[in-house]
Amino acid sequence: MDIGCPNAIDDHIRMALREDMPNGDVTALAVVPEGCTASVDLVCKQEGVIAGLSVFSRAFELLDPSVCIEFHVLDGDEVAVGQHLATLRGDARALLSGERTALNYLQRMSGIATYTRSVSRVFEGTKTRLLDTRKTAPGMRCFEKYAVRVGGGMSHRFDLSGGVMLKDNHIAAAGGITQAVAAAKERAPFVFRVEVEVETLEQVREALEAGADVIMLDNMSIEQMAKALAIIDGKAKVECSGNVTLERAKDLARLGVDYVSCGALTHSAGILDLSMKGFSLIDRPSA
User: Fold this and answer.
1) Given 91, 195, 206, 218, which residue is catalytic?
2) Tens digit of pLDDT for each residue in 266-283?
């Protein structure tokens, strides 16, 4: 699976490395002689789903292009406590200096993939597809949305340039749902579907009559959504959003909406606990 944006990824990792050592890693420089080679293992301390191995390795490659990493797992694999995920060999200073930055990416992305996997399993065997949102940490969107895909979710629009979604403030600015949909269909590129966020059954009717392609049911009860589906009756795709917990997802799966968008996949997932252990110097340069 391609994470995309290779240049942006390198820029982001370089920025993270500079943030962690703006004037070098004073500890590694003081303790480890220049030119030493070392090895270290990547170990799992919590069961979950791994995601972000290429980002993890890139953090070390930018410090030491000759680093060698042997992975024993692939993105998307389920991992167990105590499992050895990789062995790294390279410049000792680079391995020490890049450790925290590399782990920060891998732990965060794996945590998102793990949580996404737990929610996406609820929808297995149904027509409902689990979507992420734009509720991502600034600068981390490509990493976090990739992790969602690894966990079994799908991407909603990547950014504001990726689709037309009329939310409450857009509707207010346009003067109503009917006016907002008409303006979007007239001015937005024709290749984009027009999605409308609604909160009441009356708004559902208005969005349907206005010609919305997708109607998002925002923060509605299960009973309200069932009534909305009856009104829409297949004339538009239906997405639901708001307070999508693991328990509520089970009700949504039975309801039969087309899409469920869940901001918690990225903004509320914890990390997956990983660690680098067994650091060992392989050789020292001769004096």
Assistant:
1) 218
2) 999 999 999 999 999 998
Set 144, 195, 197, 239: catalytic member:
197
* Active-site residue, 277 included: no
Per CATH, is 125-267 categorized as 3.20.20.70?
Answer: yes
Q: Which pLDDT belongs to residue 247?
A: 80
The verdict on whether 135 is a catalytic residue reads yes
Q: Which CATH class name applies to 6-119+270-283?
A: alpha beta
Query: Which one of 135, 185, 193, 284 is the catalytic residue?
Result: 135
pTM of the shown model: 0.94
Catalytic residue among 167, 227, 235, 250: 167
Q: Is position 100 annotated as part of the catalytic site? A: yes
Domain with CATH 3.90.1170.20 in the chain: 6-119+270-283
Q: Residue 190: what pLDDT?
A: 87
**Residue 227 falls in the annotated catalytic set:** no
Domain with CATH 3.20.20.70 in the chain: 125-267
Q: 3-state SS string over the chain?
A: CCCCCHHHHHHHHHHHHHHHCECECHHHHHHCCCCCEEEEEEEECCCEECCCHHHHHHHHHCCCCCCEEEECCCCCCEECCCCEEEEEEEEHHHHHHHHHHHHHHHHHHHHHHHHHHHHHHHHCCCCCEEECCCCCCCCCHHHHHHHHHHHCCECCCCCCCCCEEECHHHHHHHCCHHHHHHHHHHHCCCCCCEEEEECCHHHHHHHHHHCCCEEEEECCCHHHHHHHHHHHCCCCEEEEECCCCHHHHHHHHHHCCCEEECCHHHHCCCCCCEEEEEEEEEECCCC
Is 127 assigned a catalytic role? no
Q: Residue range 94-118: average pLDDT?
A: 98
